[in-house]
From TrEMBL:
It comes from Thiomicrorhabdus marina. This is Sulfur oxidation c-type cytochrome SoxX. PROSITE patterns: CYTC (PS51007). InterPro entries: Cyt_c-like_dom, Cyt_c-like_dom_sf, Thiosulf_SoxX. Keywords: Heme, Iron, Metal-binding, Signal. Pfam families: Cytochrom_C. The lineage of its organism: Bacteria, Pseudomonadati, Pseudomonadota, Gammaproteobacteria, Thiotrichales. The gene is soxX.
Length: 126
């Protein structure tokens, strides 16, 4: 039998997972501001935010990881910018890699939708 603290925790988890919203829409035709791209780069390279360099080679980032694929030719790999956004956010099952270690950044609340949008704007320039 579960104790009451465990029941409360499971109830809280069930409720919080039910209220998670879907990711925002990203328009591929939108030309992001240079400041958003620069902010996206800072977020992507930040160890406390995107931390893309922990797993990926990206742009001129120092000491990249090699667990994930290099972030190159992103427009060619993701002609639909929304799919790239969804992959980072954590909802695009069509791009989900089995046994991937990539966190679902938006779905889990690691970073905000706006931060993900800026990171995607930066990654899309690579």
């Amino acid at each position: 039998m579960m104790n009451s603290k465990m029941k409360q925790l499971l109830t809280a988890l069930a409720i919080s997972s039910a209220v998670i919203t879907a990711p925002v829409s990203v328009q591929a035709a939108d030309k992001p501001a240079a400041s958003d791209i620069e902010e996206g780069k800072k977020l992507a390279f930040s160890r406390s935010k995107g931390n893309c360099l922990a797993c990926h080679m990206a742009g001129d980032g120092a000491q990249p990881g090699n667990i994930g694929p290099a972030l190159i030719a992103m427009k060619m790999r993701y002609p639909d910018k929304q799919k790239l956004y969804n992959k980072v956010w954590g909802t695009d099952d069509s791009t989900k890699v089995p046994n991937s270690m990539m966190p679902e950044f938006g779905k889990s609340g690691i970073i905000t939708d706006d931060e993900i949008r800026k990171i995607v704007d930066y990654i899309y320039t690579l």
